[in-house]
C-alpha cells in the first residue's frame, strides 16, 4: 500500500476539520469500508443507468444506426475515464474522489471548484430524476390530474432514497444491489429477447440524417454523451469501499462496461424490432419493442415499472454522492463543517441539505410552472458534471508530467499518458456536447460558489491568525 502523499500548496494553518478529526485517510481506514466489489460495481452501474435508457433509442433514431458507432466511441472514452479514476484512487483512496484528486494536485481552490460543481450536479439531477419518474408513475397510477398529488409523489420519490441513506451505508448498498438487479430484468428481456425477433430491415439507414456519417455520429453523440455520467461513483465513495486502492478501479471499469453492454444491446434490440418509421415518433421505444415481441399492449406498464425501479435506484446512489462531495471538502475546511457530520457512516446533514434543495427545486417546477427555468438548471448540470472530470484527468496528467518517483511506474509512462489524454479529450467532448447556452449558464452557476470559498477561506485564515497571536 502506498503512503499518503503530502498535499502541495496547502494552507499552513490547520483547518477546523483537521483539528477535530484524525487524518482522513487513517480515519476512513480505521472505520473500514462497507462496500465490497459487487456493491461498488452496482453503485457505478446503477448511477450510470438511470431512466434515460428507456428513451435513448427513440432519441437517436433520427440519425440512424450510425448512433451505434457513437456508442462504441463513447464507451472507449468512458472506460478510459474509469481507469484514470482507478489510478487516482490508488494514490489517495479518500471519500470525495474528484475533489480529493483536484485538491491534491492543484490546491484548495481547484478542489473547492470540483466539490462545488459536483454537488450542484448531484442535487439538481436528483430533482430532474424525480420529475421524470412521476411521468412513469402516472402510467401505473394516474396522478398528474392533481398538482398536489404530483408534487407529493415527486417528493416521496426523493425522500425514500434519502431515508435509506440515513439508515446507513449497509442499507444503501442493499438497495443499490436490489434495484440494479430488478432494473436489468426487463432490460435483459428486451436485449436478449430482441435477438430472436431481430429484423435487419427494420433498422433503417446508416445515415438517416443525410448530413454524412461523421456529422450524424457527432450529433447522436451529443445526445448520448451524458448517458455515462456516474462513472466516478466508486471514487466518490472510496472511503466506504473495502480495499479502495484495488476495488475503486475495478468497480469503475466493470460498472461502466456493464452499463455500456446494456445500453448497446438494448438500443440494438429496439432498432431491430421496431420499424424505423415508428421509432422516430415513439414516446416509449422499449414498450413498443415488447409489444412487437409478445403482442398486446402490456409493455407500457412493464417498462413503467422498470423505469421507476431504475430511477429509484439512481436516486438512491446519487443521494449518497450528493452527501459525499461536500463531506470531503468540509473535512478540509473548504465548506461548512455541518457537511462533515456523520452518523452510521453517512454524512447525515449532507443528505438532508441536498434532498431539501432538490425538493425545493421540484416544488418550484410543479407549483410555479417554471418549466423553462428548471430545464435550464438541468442543462447546467451537463456542464457542472464535466468540471470534476477535467480537473481529475488534469491531476493524473500533472503527476505524469511531474514524474515523482513512486507515482508513475517506469515503463508505463506512455500507456498512462495516452490513457490520461484520452480521458481528458473525452471530458472536453462532454463539455462541447453540453452546448453554448449550458456552458454559459454553468459558468455563472459555478463561479457563484466563489463567494462561499472566499467566506470559508477568510474565516479559516482568521482563526489561524488568532491562534498565532
Would you mind describing this structure in some detail?
- By secondary structure, the protein is mainly α.
- The chain has 21 helices and two strands.
- 52% of the residues are buried.
- The N terminus is likely disordered.
Mean pLDDT: 77
Model regions low in confidence, pLDDT < 50 over at least 5 residues: 1-33
Count the DSSP helices: 21
Biggest sheet overview = 2 strands, antiparallel
Biggest sheet strand line-up: 1-2
Q: What portion of residues is helical?
A: over 70%
Spell out the helices and strands N to C: HHHHHHHHHHHHHHHEEHHHHHH
What is the β-strand count?
2
- What structural class is derived from the secondary structure elements? mainly alpha
Distance between the termini: 40 Å
Q: Main attributes?
A:
single chain, mainly alpha, 21 helices, 2 strands, 73% helix, disordered N terminus
Task: Describe the SSE topology.
Layout: H1 16-20, H2 24-31, H3 37-48, H4 56-60, H5 66-91, H6 98-106, H7 108-140, H8 147-166, H9 169-196, H10 213-224, H11 233-236, H12 244-273, H13 276-279, H14 285-294, H15 299-331, E1 342-343, E2 346-347, H16 348-367, H17 371-384, H18 386-402, H19 413-433, H20 436-447, H21 450-468
Antiparallel strand pairs: 1-2
Amino acid at each position: 500500500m502506498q503512503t499518503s502523499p503530502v498535499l502541495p500548496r496547502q494552507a499552513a494553518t490547520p483547518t477546523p476539520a483537521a483539528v477535530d478529526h484524525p487524518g482522513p485517510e487513517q480515519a476512513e481506514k480505521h472505520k473500514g469500508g462497507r462496500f465490497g466489489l459487487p456493491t461498488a460495481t452496482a453503485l457505478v452501474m446503477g448511477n450510470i443507468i438511470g431512466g434515460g435508457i428507456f428513451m435513448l433509442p427513440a432519441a437517436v433514431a433520427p440519425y440512424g444506426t450510425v448512433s451505434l458507432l457513437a456508442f462504441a466511441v463513447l464507451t472507449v472514452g468512458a472506460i478510459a475515464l474509469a481507469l484514470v479514476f482507478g489510478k487516482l484512487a490508488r494514490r489517495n483512496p479518500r471519500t470525495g474522489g474528484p475533489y480529493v484528486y483536484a485538491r491534491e494536485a492543484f490546491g484548495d481552490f481547484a478542489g473547492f471548484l470540483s466539490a462545488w460543481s459536483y454537488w450542484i450536479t448531484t442535487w439538481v439531477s436528483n430533482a430532474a430524476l424525480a420529475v421524470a419518474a412521476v411521468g412513469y408513475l402516472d402510467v401505473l397510477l394516474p396522478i398528474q390530474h392533481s398538482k398536489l398529488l404530483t408534487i407529493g409523489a415527486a417528493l416521496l420519490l426523493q425522500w425514500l432514497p434519502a431515508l435509506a441513506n440515513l439508515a446507513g451505508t449497509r442499507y444503501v448498498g442493499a438497495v443499490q444491489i436490489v434495484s440494479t438487479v430488478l432494473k436489468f430484468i426487463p432490460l435483459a428481456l428486451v436485449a436478449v429477447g430482441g435477438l430472436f425477433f431481430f429484423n435487419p430491415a427494420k433498422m433503417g439507414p446508416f445515415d438517416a440524417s443525410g448530413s454524412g456519417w461523421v456529422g450524424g455520429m457527432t450529433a447522436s453523440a451529443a445526445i448520448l454523451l451524458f448517458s455515462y455520467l456516474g462513472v466516478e461513483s466508486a471514487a466518490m465513495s472510496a472511503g466506504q469501499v473495502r480495499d479502495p486502492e484495488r476495488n475503486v478501479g475495478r468497480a469503475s471499469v466493470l460498472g461502466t462496461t456493464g452499463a455500456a453492454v446494456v445500453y448497446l444491446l438494448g438500443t440494438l434490440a429496439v432498432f431491430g424490432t421496431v420499424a424505423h418509421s415508428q421509432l422516430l415518433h415513439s414516446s416509449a421505444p422499449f414498450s413498443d419493442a415488447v409489444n412487437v415481441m409478445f403482442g398486446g399492449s402490456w409493455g407500457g406498464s412493464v417498462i413503467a415499472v422498470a423505469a421507476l425501479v431504475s430511477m429509484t435506484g439512481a436516486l438512491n446512489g446519487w443521494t449518497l454522492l450528493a452527501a459525499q462531495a461536500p463531506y470531503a471538502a468540509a473535512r478540509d475546511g473548504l465548506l461548512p463543517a455541518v457537511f462533515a457530520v456523520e452518523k452510521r457512516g453517512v454524512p447525515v446533514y449532507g443528505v438532508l441539505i441536498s434532498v431539501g434543495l432538490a425538493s425545493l427545486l421540484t416544488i418550484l417546477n410543479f407549483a410555479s410552472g417554471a418549466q423553462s427555468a428548471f430545464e435550464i438548471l438541468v442543462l447546467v448540470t451537463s456542464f457542472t458534471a464535466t468540471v470534476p472530470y477535467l480537473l481529475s484527468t488534469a491531476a493524473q496528467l500533472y503527476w505524469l508530467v511531474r514524474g515523482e518517483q513512486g507515482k508513475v511506474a517506469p515503463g508505463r509512462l506512455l500507456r498512462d499518458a495516452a490513457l490520461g489524454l484520452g480521458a481528458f479529450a473525452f471530458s472536453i467532448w462532454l463539455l462541447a456536447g453540453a452546448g453554448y447556452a449550458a456552458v454559459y449558464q454553468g459558468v455563472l452557476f459555478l463561479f457563484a460558489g466563489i463567494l462561499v470559498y472566499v467566506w470559508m477561506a477568510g474565516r479559516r485564515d482568521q482563526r489561524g491568525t488568532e491562534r498565532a497571536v
